[in-house]
Amino acid sequence: MKKSILFMFSILSLSFLACDDSDNLPAGTNEYLIATPLTTDLLTFKEEAIDVIEPVDIVQSGKIYAYKNYIFVNDVGRGLHVLDNSNPALPEKIAFIKLEGNNDISIKNDKLYADSYGDLVIMDISDINNIGDVKRLENAIYQEFWCTVGFDVEWPQADAYDYSDLDANREAIVGWETKTVRMTENEFNEKYGFAYLEDGALANTNAAPTSDTGQGGSLARFRIVGDYLYAVEWSSINVFDISDLDAPEVLDEVYTSWGIETIFNQGDLLFLGGTRGMYIYDISEPSKPTFVSDFEHGTACDPVVVDGDYAYVTLRGGNLCGAVESGLYIVDISDIKNPELAIEYPMDEPYGLGIKEEKLFICDGASGLKVFDKTDVENLVELNHFEDIVTYDVIPMENHLIMVGDGVLYQYEYLENEIKLLSQIGLN
Prior knowledge:
Elements: E1 29-41, H1 42-48, E2 50-53, E3 61-67, E4 70-75, E5 79-84, E6 92-99, E7 105-108, E8 111-116, E9 119-124, E10 132-137, E11 148-149, E12 160-161, E13 171-184, H2 185-192, E14 215-216, E15 222-225, E16 228-233, E17 236-241, E18 249-255, E19 260-266, E20 269-274, E21 277-282, E22 290-296, E23 304-307, E24 310-315, E25 327-332, E26 340-346, E27 353-356, E28 359-363, E29 369-373, E30 381-386, E31 391-396, E32 400-405, E33 408-414, E34 419-426
């Protein structure tokens, strides 16, 4: 049985102010603002959460994915911006696929696989403007959510959120109703002591593709290898047999270390990036990933790409990511059972990274895009540094580089010893 994935709620610090005589409240009683969810049928909500509409402004740039002449840019939790990239010098926004609860996709033979509120959604994109035959495998990635909430729902300011009448298996939250309730501090703590929500925010939970399979960046949690789709979540790998593209089969959930964030493969090996390290799994038997070894580090956000005998890992410290200083770790994996740190380079706030032959591309957040010659890993040579842009995810394609930043899609052409901007398009 798959484990449940629960939204963990952090306790909101409350200050209880003494009431003055004008409050006319009984002694020991306070007024609290309580928010109660407005709901709709969960099944109807999920069905309505999928649609194809005209291009819209992006709200929060997520991961990117390239397939044929299209680029898909995730709008975190909301869906996918679709661009026609037939001419990389003049990309064109053509549609927005509304897919609430989405963060990751993979595509093979015009079948798009995506997550949506923990479900696996399969859609036919052979006609990008007329998506049909949408299927949904409920709880295929996560067994259940504590609750499903529309991403356009604004969270009200409140002292507590009352979910006592919510059936999370049948209902989705589409709004809130607030009311003032009088009770003692003890009564409040007994009823709502573990139901607070801080600021209304939910707790967060490069090999070249084959001709029929798309390509994601290093931040991807989905990876298609042959006839199998691997989807990682917080502490496991979900395995799907997609030999029948229209009817994927849920095979297994392989438990891993906790804090898994990304997935990459080289041949018959999966490399998982997590908050505590890099974890290597053997998929020579594709349906049963088997643990091989790990390379652990202090707590940090950690995508990984691999090329030959080296794994390239960016660690981002600070904030929610951890205490490790940000940097690039190059790990020697020539002995796959005993990966060892070869060298470390300082970075500012690295996110995604990618490799194209001897070029290494690193999205260093607000410090821009950095390009290195990695011929000698012990002595990386900087070829380019594109400053004054915010960078997030990158995909090195065969003929050009695709990168997404803060609401902007950039494309670069490869030159012998550098790269040059080919185009940029705002997604707002």
